[in-house]
Amino acid sequence: MASLSAQIPLCLALMMAACLMIGINGSIDGAQREFDYFALSLQWPGTICHKTRHCCSSNACCRGSNSPTEFTIHGLWPDYNDGTWPSCCYRSQFDVKEISTLLDALEKYWPSLYCGKSSTCFSGKGLFWAHEVDIVLYFLYVSKLFSTKARKLIIASFLNLLMAKLGCNLEVGTNTLLSQYLPLLFVSIAFSLAEKHGTCSSPVIRDEYSYFITTLNVYFKYNVTKILNEAGYVPSNSERYPLGGIVSAIENSFRATPEVICSKEAVEEIRLCFFKDFKPRNCLASKTSCPKYVSLPAYVSMGREASESEIAWIPDDEAL
């Protein structure tokens, strides 16, 4: 039987190969079946920006008076009727030049509400939109916090679990994993997790320009912020609104049932669902994360105009 030192590189090679297969073939199991419907995910900046503790130029929450005050696009996601979704589909080279005429609109209506290095998105080929590599950013962030024993153990446990899933039942020491093998795993994951949602929209949407312009057009056609405002559901840090009333207001205009996602009692995300021809359809029924009465928090301005005691500004090269 091979020694432990010999087995570890083999297991890392298996993990890298698995990640590469995801990027090339669509999934570890090969090409994925065609999706069933689209979900347009809209995020409420008043809720998300309230959680902001660090600012950077890529975070729209930090633009002060120019920060978003209406629902913004989180993504247009292909989904399956069984509640799962395709991901890591066929790889393509993202070319920001293809969407150069859309950049102003994307900055306003599809902004990042988090800090993250744009060079890590789309395999370093493009910008943040659709946050295709959140997992990579998260582990890169955690990897910078190795000063505590607890975080070391969490990451080491994650790597050991991943190895076990690939048939490598090893228990590797924390320091060995973190110092020798974690950087290699980051490289393999970053290489494979690219254009996660847009490429899965084929054959309905076949290129990045079509993906972004289609998403923008659907967003403008079904203006959820306007629908709710006209029904009396306006941003407020004191009012609580009936969840059923918000859902009904959208149903009356959209002619289909949305999905509402909350963070505690605050609306964080609303999803509109569509058939492949972009006619409205009901979103899948699921257990709600919202209470009977919810809030639409008003936006609280952040950025350089805020005091240092309120929020910390960090440069992009140190962004999380």
Helix percentage = 25-40%
Number of strands: 9
Per CATH, the architecture is Alpha-Beta Complex
Elements, N to C (H/E): HEHEEHHHHHHEHEEEEE
User: Class by helix and strand content?
Assistant: alpha+beta
The main pleated sheet reads as:
5 strands, antiparallel
Distance between the termini: 42 Å
Mean pLDDT: 72
Primary descriptors:
320 residues, alpha+beta, Ribonuclease Rh, Chain A, five-stranded antiparallel beta sheet, two-stranded parallel ribbon, 9 helices, 9 strands, disordered C terminus, hydrolase, RNase_T2-like_sf, ribonuclease T2 activity, RNA binding
Characterise this structure.
Residues 1-26 form the signal peptide. One of its GO terms (molecular function) is ribonuclease T2 activity. Belongs to the RNase T2 family. The chain is of the alpha+beta class. It has one domain (32-133, 193-318): Alpha-Beta Complex (Ribonuclease Rh, Chain A), CATH 3.90.730. Helix content is 35%, strand content 12%. The chain contains nine helices and nine strands. It has helices at residues 4-25, 45-48, 103-109, 134-143, 149-165, 174-192, 208-221, 224-230, 243-254, and strands at 37-43, 54-55, 72-79, 241-242, 259-263, 266-274, 280-281, 293-294, 312-313. Strands 1, 3, 5, 6 and 7 form a five-stranded antiparallel β-sheet that branches. A two-stranded parallel ribbon has the order 2-9. A hairpin with a 2-residue loop joins strand 5 (259-263) and strand 6 (266-274). Helix 1 (4-25) packs parallel to helix 6 and helix 5 (149-165) packs across helix 6. The longest helix is centred in the first third of the chain and has 22 residues, at 4-25. The chain is globular. The two termini are 42 Å apart.
